[in-house]
Design goal:
Structural class of chain B: mainly alpha
Order of helices and strands of chain A: HH
Structural class of chain A: mainly alpha
Radius of gyration of chain B: 23 Å
Strand content of chain B: under 5%
Number of domains of chain B: 1
Order of helices and strands of chain B: HHHHHHHHHHHHHHHHHHHHHHHHEEH
Number of strands of chain B: 2
CATH architecture of chain B: Up-down Bundle
Shape of chain A: elongated
Strand order of the largest sheet of chain B: 1-2
Oligomer: heterodimer
Number of helices of chain B: 25
Amino acid sequence: MSETKFKRGGWSWWYLLFAVQFLIALWPPFYNKVEPALFGIPFFYWFQLAWVLVCAVLTAAVYWATDD
Amino acid sequence: MADVNWIALGVFLALFGFVSWLGFAAARWRKGDLDQLHEWGLGGRRFGTVVTWFLVGGDLYTAYTFIAIPALAFGAGAIAFFAVPYTVIIYPLLFLVFRRIWYVCHRRGYITAGDFVRGRFGNRWLALAITVTGIVATMPYIALQLVGIQVVIGALGVSGTGLLGELPLLIAFLVLAAFTYSSGLRAPASIAIVKDVLIYITAIAAIIVIPTELGGFGKIFAAVPAQKLLLAVPGEHTTGAYGSYATLALGSALALFLYPHSLTAILSASSGSAIRRNAALLPGYTFMLGLLALLGFFVIAAGVHELPAYAEGFKKFGNNFAVPALLLQSFPSWFVGIAFAAIGIGALVPAAIMSIAAANLYTRNIHREFINRNPTDREEAQNAKWVSLLVKFGALLFILFVPTKYAIQLQLLGGIWIIQTLPAVMLGAYTRWFNAWALLAGWAVGTLLGTWMAIATNLQNTYPLIIGSYSFPGYTAVYTVALNLVVAALLTPIFNGIAGRDLADETLASDYYPS
């Protein structure tokens, strides 16, 4: 194996962005509330939907920041 | 429901006819030699980022999901939204773990999880356990897809008595079986594009039109009973609904890519980069699934379940009739045809991939391993084609002769069973530390205990774990896979001590990332 490959498949600090996705998504006390509502949609629902989009952006950031 | 909705039925049939033609024509798409198993069963591993997006999306977000999740929101409320965190956290797993599995499978020519475990641990019995678990967990899942078709056909007003009433389902099934046989994975891949476009159109229209008709989201949520609107706040000495919600999401996420049909779709991607890009792009489907879950509340607000016109449908299909009834109530007939076609076609795609995945497993890890060790490429591909027919036929018989609730319960058990393959497959992608027999013992303990816990709770998916004076209701799959891991970790040094460390492993560290 050549020296240029030593980091391949290894750990990257960017992967901590994945841990953030897990922690928020799996912590119901954080979002189990009605207020603040958005367009009449309780926080519970709009926050989790918004979190989907945030997570997609975070994953895209990891994609751009790390090598294949 | 004696009145057939002819306009909706016409649109439905036209779209169904179009995708059927597409399924057969797909044999010539990115042409390959369909007498080779990886060509028939993995589309020649030729799908780029875009096709993979449609294929995996069409595969994971099934017709049954689109019916069952809103139905759960309608019946049980906020807990149904666990589908959103569930389908958020699957993508980091895809990005990290399953990319490694894609590389090693690509490098070594593996087409199933059984192949990978056989190569990694050199133990045919462990591979057999992984294989059988995969096939058994997939069968009821296919049956549920047929339920999805059944519900929309019923909602179109097509009915009859006895087997005559099942004729439309039978026809849909025969078409599905025929194009899967002839085109392999290329058929669902091409149909998935049509299906996903139709589903997006339906979801966007529903989320804009229906709230407008009902007077806005504020009014809709005001109509939802308080106990359904949020998770119940846990009392003292229990994690209550919070624990259930989080473990359901976590366990479902850990299990998802272990299902054979998920892995089949992933392995058909042409590059590891296509997998990584899709981890950022596939949440588009999660967002849509979340929007669709809200349809359950629209049903409550619109009072559709109280209208006499739909009473018969609710009686026949239960809460699964909620979404079809809402669509019938809210849209003109021609659009109902499009929406129902989206659900019906949405059942064909995963059903086809599931039967292909089960066929790949049987052919590679049972037939080749235990019956005929040296098949020609042609024999192997032919074998898989026949098995795909057999698997679907089994699912059809199940749906025709066994009450639907058993398919739902078996699918629930399937989730508990499939997650038991996690230590060998997902951890196996990172380490060869575990002893193969210890993994097999962990798998057996997890499977048996999971089955027992499910039966003890009368086939609820959560188990009220009691420790001291605290109770932790949570998804059975999570508890049992944790025990599975503990057993495998404790027995590994013991088994190594007795028989010596077994290091059989045909894969290399460099197989797991790009060269």
